[in-house]
Amino acid sequence: MLRRLRLTLAATALITVPSGCGILGGGGGGSDSTAAGTASGTAAAVASSRPAAASRTPAPAAACRPDAVLSTWSLNRRAAQLVVVPVEEDAVLSVKSLVADGAGGIILFGSEAPATMPADLAVLRRAGGRVPPLVMVDEEGGEIQRMANLAGDMPWPRTMAATLTRARTRALAEQAGRRMRAAGVTMDLAPVLDLSDGPGPDSAHPDGPRSFSLKPPVAAAYGIAFARGLRAGGVIPVYKHFPGLGQATSNTDDGPASVPPLPALKAAALLPFQTAIRAGATAVMVGNVTVPGLTGKVPATLSKAAITGVLRGQLGFGGLVLTDSLSALAVADAGYSVPRAAALSIGAGADMVLFDSATAATTTREVIASIVAAVTSGRLPGSRLDQAVQHVLAAKKISLCR
After folding, report:
1. Between the N and C ends of the chain, which has fewer C-beta atoms within 10 Å?
2. What is the pLDDT of residues 261-271, one digit of tens each?
3. Averaged over 30-37, what is the pLDDT?
4. So what's the pLDDT on residue 61?
5. What separation in angstroms does the CA of 34 have from each of 13, 43, 44?
6. How far apart are CA 110 and CA 95, in angstroms?
7. What confidence category does residue 44 fall into, taking pLDDT thresholds of 50, 70 and 90?
8. Domains defined along the chain, listed by start
9. From its phi and psi, is residue 250 left (phi > 0), alpha (psi between -120 and 50) or beta?
10. Cα-to-chain-centroid distance, residue 81
11. What is this structure's pTM?
12. Cβ contact 206:245 at 8 Å
């Protein structure tokens, strides 16, 4: 926290106390001395004094640096900011202690928001103190709505693109966003930018009507309209699922799946993401597919080549990167537990990790411990951990220097 310079008047000398993000003590000075002499033959005392010392120029305040403040946080606290805790909508307060310990976000599951949810989320926000959690939900439209009773019914994205104007799509999303924000939801894991016109969603087809269109310009235009509506409603949109699931061989929730090689993705699937990033995307979710010639047998969520190389490097995305659920069978079948996958994904360039778990508290602590262990062992650079935390704080619009 920045402090104002304090000027302390000691006798007649001006003393300056420098300050910065932390508390700095000290400061001192001398007083002018006065000599008194007695004139011969008189009783009058004539005082004389040396000229006052010139005032020193106040030193400029030390600039507060977020990285310096962040370095005062424990490793556990920093790692916790990268974890999104799963919780049912009717059991929000069950994760209060995890939020109080610094969990960076929660994701709500269910099909109908209970009347008590807004008040419960307010309790969680207070539990988070100065750095409250992001409150996430999947509110895409169609059958992918966790709280339609609160946000309002929305058609499938494919139906939006086929029957609504972009302006109407934006207005619909803004209305949903305002209702969610009023209830305490701050982030929507939508819109889907995948390209598809096929069936689904099911075990063989991850998208179906969750996709706005098979055509990149249409998917981009409607996805951006939906996202801008959410943003206008006070909710952070998350574009997903980079690098695109529309042509995936199957659903990664149910097992391994791959998409076409990178050159083919650049010609189609990546175009909506590129357009959204140029339009100012705040957050992107990475899917669990493999990309031949790029990720090998590793899901994109754990691939530095995919996240740091393509998403951040080639597409120039500098915002918040979230993983799709690390509980997906595509991750497990590749040989990774959720805690191990979490540490690898942060090293690959992700900023927040998501997972499903019937034992959320235990898994959350295991994930935090895995990230901390990766840092202490040198497998995960501390600078990458801090960069991820700063991306989380930026999404929350929290400055450590205010």
Report:
1. C
2. 999 999 999 99
3. 38
4. 58
5. 14, 19, 16
6. 15
7. very low
8. 1-26+52-64 (no CATH), 66-395 (3.20.20.300)
9. beta
10. 8
11. 0.85
12. yes
